[in-house]
């Protein structure tokens, strides 16, 4: 997600709907890309670089549910907001079970739609920032030597310098030197900050693995 403006993709075979949504969302500061066919939409170079997709439920030969499944099969986690002129509960249930972020019927309540898009986009931006931070921490951890990582692991566990020295068979002074190297490589200013950063990374990584 490198665009300066959040990107919203609009897929609808009705040109009037596309043009209306484009004008509406561009007035709110979004970068909009519109598509009239499923093929154009799925051939977009990088769906994952967008922040949200507004997709018509019924399209020639397919549906938003099938398109969402196709996108997910490619590893794309782009949030879909489904819109339709044929609103019914079974369709809504299928769309939401397939992973749609929300569901709106035509004629669209534009204020509600824009509000929901804003929520979805902000969530995507927060997720993106969080992933970048995780990647940076992972890269910094990779830069540590084996001994520095051994010291770090014990510091995060809350063990005092003397105990770490005894467990690793080195002097307390050497532990302090390694700890100093770790704080520098991890770009933190204190041991407390080091523990906080690494613990947060571990918790988020564990959560992602469980998901």
Put simply, the count of helices is 9
| The CATH superfamily title of the largest domain | Response regulator
Give the overall average pLDDT.
Answer: 89
Helix content: 55-70%
Stated plainly, the CATH topology of the largest domain is called: Rossmann fold
- Strand and helix order: EHEHEEEHEHEHHHHH
Description:
The model has no long low-confidence stretch (mean pLDDT 89). By secondary structure, the protein is an alpha/beta fold. The strands form 2 sheets. The chain has a 5-stranded parallel beta sheet with strand order 2-1-3-6-7, sandwiched between helices. It is built from 9 helices and 7 strands, in the order E-H-E-H-E-E-E-H-E-H-E-H-H-H-H-H. The chain is 58% helix and 13% strand. It has helices spanning 15-26, 38-42, 64-73, 89-97, 110-142, 146-156, 161-168, 172-185, 191-210; strands at residues 7-11, 31-35, 52-56, 58-59, 62-63, 80-84, 102-105. It has 2 domains: 7-132, Response regulator (Rossmann fold, 3-Layer(aba) Sandwich), CATH 3.40.50; 143-210, Orthogonal Bundle (Arc Repressor Mutant, subunit A), CATH 1.10.10.10.
């Amino acid at each position: 997600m490198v665009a300066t403006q959040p990107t919203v993709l609009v897929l609808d075979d009705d040109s009037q709907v596309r043009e209306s949504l484009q004008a509406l969302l561009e007035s709110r500061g979004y970068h909009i890309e519109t598509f009239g066919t499923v093929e154009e939409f799925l051939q977009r170079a990088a769906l994952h670089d967008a922040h949200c997709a507004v997709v018509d439920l019924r399209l020639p030969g397919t549906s938003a549910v099938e398109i969402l499944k196709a996108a997910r099969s490619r590893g794309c986690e782009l949030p879909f907001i489904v819109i339709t002129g044929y609103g019914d509960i079974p369709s809504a249930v299928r769309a939401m079970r397939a992973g749609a972020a929300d569901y709106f019927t035509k004629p669209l309540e534009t204020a509600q739609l824009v509000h929901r898009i804003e929520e979805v986009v902000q969530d995507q931006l927060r997720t993106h920032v969080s992933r970048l931070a995780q990647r940076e921490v992972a890269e910094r951890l990779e830069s540590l030597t084996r001994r520095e990582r051994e010291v770090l692991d014990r510091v995060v566990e809350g063990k005092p310098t003397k105990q770490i020295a005894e467990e690793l068979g080195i002097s307390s002074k050497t532990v302090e030197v390694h700890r100093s190297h770790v704080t520098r490589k991890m770009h933190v200013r204190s041991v407390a900050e080091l523990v906080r950063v690494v613990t947060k990374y571990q918790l988020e990584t564990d959560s992602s693995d469980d998901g």
